[in-house]
Amino acid sequence: MKRIFLILIGILLTQEISYAQKSISDFEIIEDSTNTFKEIDDFFKLDKFKGKVIYVDVWGTRCGPCIKEFAYNKELKEKFKNKQVEFLYLCSPYSMKRDSLNIELWKKLIVKHNLGGLNIFMSPQCYMEGFFEKYADKYTEREQYGIPAYLLVNKKGDIINFKAPRPSSKEKLYKEIEDLLSEK
């Protein structure tokens, strides 16, 4: 029993050391507290996304299913390494005011789950009005404001799939991304 306990402690310490090797400065983040982005489509106009397929992950810091899906990101990114695919992580705000504790948790989760790509902490207005209300016709009432939500955006910056497969769906998602990559 003591041996098992020591092994578990060793594993936990190893994980903590690997997390400690990265910091938030190793990631591309934007905290949109000033509502720079009025609509979700504004993100797709950024230079880094021009001519690329974008896989969008809308998640929340207190969403268990959202965080569980991060385990599949490594394989997904490896599959599309050196291809014209970008990853955009949009963190949903949980309140209509600035919540510094949630922002700190967001930054810790980015590092912990190695969320390479562009990470944006959405303003409440962009999340509510510029995404879910703007595209209310794309979601049922039950789905509206629900996370996790995944989107696929084509090379022109148009949302092609408002209900894209989760990273855990693997081959189904890979095929949809490949199809968008092959479009002219």
Annotation keywords:
184 residues, alpha/beta, Glutaredoxin, six-stranded mixed β-sheet, 7 helices
Question: What does this molecule look like?
Answer:
The chain is an alpha/beta fold. It has a single domain, classed as Glutaredoxin, CATH 3.40.30.10. It has helices spanning 2-20, 41-44, 64-69, 73-79, 100-112, 124-133, 171-182, and strands at 28-31, 53-59, 85-91, 118-121, 149-153, 159-161. β3, α5 and β4 form a beta-alpha-beta unit. It starts with a helix and ends with a helix. Residues 4-19 have low confidence and may be disordered.
How is this structure best summarized?
The protein has helices at 2-20, 41-44, 64-69, 73-79, 100-112, 124-133, 171-182, and strands spanning 28-31, 53-59, 85-91, 118-121, 149-153, 159-161.
Uncertain regions spanning at least 5 consecutive residues: 4-19
Strand order of the largest sheet: 1-4-3-2-5-6
Tell me the number of strands.
Answer: 6
The CATH class name reads Alpha Beta
Main sheet overview: 6 strands, mixed
Total number of helices: 7
Mean model confidence by pLDDT: 88
The SSE order reads HEHEHHEHEHEEH
The CATH homologous superfamily name equals: Glutaredoxin
Helix content: 25-40%
Strand content: 15-25%
Mind telling me which CATH architecture this is?
3-Layer(aba) Sandwich
- End-to-end Cα distance, whole Å, is 60 Å
